[in-house]
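Lab notebook, design round three. We kept the backbone fixed and only want residue identities now. Task for the bench partner: fill in a sequence for the structure below.
Input C-alpha cells:
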C-alpha cells in the first residue's frame, strides 16, 4: 500500500475501475462470441437432424411402397381386384420427401455426400419405383417380377449405402458440435468463476486501499486538529505521502508552525509587559 501513497486517489481508483471493467468486458466479449458459436452449432444440429429425419421418412416410404405394392400384386395374382392407391400414396410421399430433401441440401453436410444421396434417391424413384408401379398396373407379371427382383433392389442398395454414409457423416458432425458446445460451456463457466473471484479480490483491495489512503490518514489529521485545539503544538504530524490527503500535511504543518510562532510572540510580549 505504501507504494501507492505517492499516486493520487483518483488515478488509483480509475485504474482499479478500469481493470474491473476490462476484466468483465473481456469475459463478456468472450462469452458472447462463445455463445454465438454455440448457437451456430445448434443451428447446424437442427438442420442435420431435420435432414436425417426427412431421409429416414423417405426411406420408410420406399419400404411402405414395396410392401403395399407386393400385397396388391398378391391380390392380382390371385385373380382379385388390386388396390394400388396405398402404394401410389407411398410413392407420392417418397417424391415429396425427395423434394424436401433437395430444399434442405446441402446445408452443413459435405456437398459430395449430399449430391450422392440425392442422385441415388432420384434414380431409385425414377428408374426403380415409378417403372415398377407402371409395370404393376399395366405390364405383365413377368416384367414386373423381373424389374422388382433385379432393377429396384440394386438401386435400393445404392440409395441405402449413400444414406448410411450420410447418417455416419451427420453423426460425426453432431458429435463434434456437442464436444464444441461442452468445451465452450466449460470455458465460460471457468471464466465466470475466475472473474467473480477476481472481482471480489478487487473489491477487497479497493476497501483496504481506501482505508489505508483515506480513512486512517483523515483520522490522523482529525486527531492532529484535536491536539491543536487543545493547545498542543509540539507534535508535528508525520508525512502521509503525496496523494490527495497527503498534500494536506504540509499545509497543516505550516499552520501549526505559524500558530507556534504566534504563541511564542504573544508569550514574549507578555513577559516584556
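Proposed sequence:
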Amino acid at each position: 500500500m505504501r507504494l501507492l501513497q505517492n499516486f493520487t486517489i483518483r488515478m488509483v481508483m480509475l485504474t482499479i475501475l478500469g481493470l474491473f471493467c476490462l476484466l468483465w468486458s473481456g469475459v463478456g466479449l468472450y462469452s458472447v462470441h462463445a455463445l454465438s458459436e454455440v448457437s451456430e452449432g445448434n443451428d447446424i444440429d437442427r438442420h442435420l437432424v431435420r435432414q436425417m429425419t426427412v431421409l429416414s421418412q423417405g426411406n420408410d416410404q420406399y419400404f411402405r411402397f414395396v410392401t403395399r405394392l407386393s400385397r396388391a400384386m398378391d391380390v392380382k395374382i390371385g385373380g382379385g381386384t388390386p388396390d394400388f392407391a396405398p402404394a401410389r400414396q407411398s410413392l407420392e410421399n417418397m417424391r415429396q420427401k425427395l423434394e424436401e430433401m433437395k430444399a434442405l441440401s446441402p446445408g452443413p453436410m459435405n456437398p459430395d455426400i449430399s449430391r450422392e444421396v440425392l442422385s441415388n434417391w432420384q434414380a431409385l424413384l425414377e428408374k426403380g419405383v415409378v417403372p415398377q408401379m407402371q409395370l404393376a398396373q399395366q405390364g405383365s407379371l413377368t416384367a414386373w417380377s423381373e424389374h422388382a427382383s433385379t432393377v429396384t433392389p440394386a438401386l435400393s442398395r445404392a440409395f441405402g449405402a449413400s444414406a448410411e454414409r450420410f447418417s455416419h457423416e451427420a453423426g460425426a458432425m453432431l458429435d463434434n458440435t456437442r464436444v464444441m458446445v461442452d468445451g465452450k460451456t466449460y470455458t465460460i463457466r471457468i471464466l465466470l468463476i475466475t472473474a467473480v473471484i477476481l472481482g471480489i479480490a478487487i473489491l477487497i483491495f479497493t476497501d483496504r486501499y481506501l482505508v489505508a489512503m483515506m480513512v486512517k490518514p483523515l483520522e490522523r489529521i482529525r486527531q492532529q486538529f484535536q491536539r491543536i485545539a487543545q493547545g498542543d503544538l509540539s507534535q508535528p504530524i508525520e508525512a502521509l505521502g503525496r496523494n490527495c490527503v497527503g498534500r494536506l500535511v504540509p499545509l497543516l504543518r505550516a499552520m501549526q508552525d505559524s500558530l507556534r510562532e504566534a504563541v511564542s510572540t504573544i508569550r514574549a510580549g507578555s513577559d516584556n509587559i
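Keep this in mind before ordering anything: The mean pLDDT is 87.
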